[in-house]
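User: Fold this; tokens only.

Assistant: Input:
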Amino acid sequence: MVNLVIDGQSVEAEEGWTILEAARYYGIDIPTLCYEEGLSSYSACRLCTVEIIRDGRSKLSASCSFPVQEGIEVRTNSRRVREARKIIIELMLASCPNSRTLQCLASRYGVTKMRFRAEDRGCLLCGLCIRMCKEQMQAGAIGFVSRGTDRKVIMPFHMRSEQCRECGACLYICPVCELPCQGPMQPGELCNACLDTVQLEAFPCKD
């Protein structure tokens, strides 16, 4: 067993667990987007960022891929972590402003303004669809191509792959391929309707 401290609580975790797994085991909430139980960790979105302190030194790291270590202290809701998560949510919203999942995350974590120009790219590059297709559906019909701003998810040679069974698993798991935010603002704007309990009942957030 590995001994560590999470949010001031001394806990034990199994060797090989990640910080995210240990936190969830003890009922400590850490938000995620590119992480899905049953799929390999990818650490693309960084929404699960936590503050890790060891030997008096502090750093931010994605909890979904950082293994538990003896004697470390983990802070899941420090000021530094909250500020990092807000920036991450803003950046993701700039890429996919009409995503209901992201709009709900913005309300949940106090993002009330956008500092980046919104340009709907229709994809967060979270890799969920690729991992779902390969690891759960055993198909591997889609993948990433290119790098940087040109990076995207496609089938080989832009043609329908023979490996694709049209099961829809990639669409099911995608945080962008869903009904857009139904709040009162124009498409592409920061909604925050979920901050209003009346709007929350009318347009419930996705769990």
